[in-house]
Every structure is written in structure tokens, then in C-alpha cells.
Amino acid sequence: MVSGGSGMAGHDGQSDGARSIALTQARRGHGISVTGYYLGRALVERGLRVLLVDLTGRHERLRRLLERGPVKNLGLWVPPSLRPDSLPALLERARQETRGKVDTLLLDTDASLLQSIGGLSAGVDYVTLFVEAGETGLRDADQLGVQFDDRLPPYGRVGVALCRTDTHRPDELPQQTPEHGLPILGGFPADYLLAASDEYSVKSSEAPTPHDEYLIAIRQLARALAEIVPLRRAVSPASPASAPTSRSV
Hints:
By secondary structure, this protein is of the alpha/beta class. The protein is built from 8 helices and 7 strands. Helix content is 33%, strand content 17%. The longest helix is centred in the last third of the chain and has 17 residues, at 212-228. It is globular and about 45 Å long. The two termini are 33 Å apart.
């Protein structure tokens, strides 16, 4: 059954393990690593324990952000291997070893790697595609979305976030993609300093501060994902669990 007409089958109520959400893009250049960090913070604000999983091979981006802005219950894990034949087993191990300690795994990954490991069949619960606002971006989302999941909404597990929009207000954004009806989860106003901070953060001792409109959009995306996946506080084991850190797995 699908709760509320939009959630995933069998994901109602309290969870007994972490949900995994892949953050990926049709074309690079949207600052997804930075978005993942701030999305993780927004989910922590909602009472969730979040582990960022860097599958990009560009590890300094997330690591520097966490060093400069550490947040309780927000950790980072870099798998020892990104080989497609070993990565699904490593992700499953991470899910098992963080049971009761982590509620959400945010996977920062390139679309090509996500496809090579099997996408949703590799244990990914939901895919969020970041695309440019406009007709070209929506076409990219439709083309890429069906490669991950061919089920029609509300049973599908692929959503879309629009980048560089003129507004962050949900009522002013399209509700779905034109061809396959993938849901539009939110939109991000242009924040060029923040989008460039992947390179900037490695060279400077200070990270740029996002605009208020960007943070509002991040919180709206966090709320949408919490509802549609859904994301819940995981059941804790009998013994007390410590907060997740980069050494959790």
C-alpha cells in the first residue's frame, strides 16, 4: 500500500533501518555536494540522524564543509572502494552497521555510477535528480528518470529538484515533468557563490554563507523527502547508540 498516495510501499510509520536517498544530476555543475550538506542539516533539524555518503571520489568538498560547520547527528562516510561490483555490498554493510544509529543515508553520486551499480535495485530507496530549470532540464529528468525506475507516480521512486529557478515557492513551480510525470520536489534560486563553493571551499579557510532563499528551498526539499520516502526516526537497538560520525562504518 502507498501511504497518502505518494509514499513508498511498505515504508509507513517507524523505520527499523536507515533509508537511502541518492542525490544526482543529469549534468554536473549544480553544486550537489554542497546541497547534500545543507540538506543533511535540514533533515537533522527535523530530528533525523543523517550520514552523508560520498560516492563522487571528490572527498574534500563534503569533508571541508563538515570540518567548518560540524553538526551533531550529521556524519560522513567515504566507502573504501567505488567499484560497481563491490559498492552495493558496501552500502548494505553500512546500512546494517548503522542500524538504530542512523535514519537517513544521503548518497552524493554521479548518475553514471548510480546506473552502473543498478540504481534502485542496489538498495537505494529514492533518487532525487537535480536538473536545470526549463524545458531542457525537464527533458533530462524524464530521460534519466526512466533509467532508474519505470513505475509511474505515485509508485515511482524518482523525484526532481529544479536548479537556478527564479523562485523557491512550490506553487510557482511545475508539479511534474511533462512526459513521465516525475514529481517536482522543489526548486533552488541561483546562488552562484554557493554553487561555486566546491572549488572555493578547498582553497579558502571560510565557506560562503548561503542566501536565505536557498536555505528556505533546502528546508522545503527536506520536508518533501520526509513525506514522500518517507523518512522516520529509526528504531534503536536495546543498547544505547551513539550519534553517527564519519567513523560509523
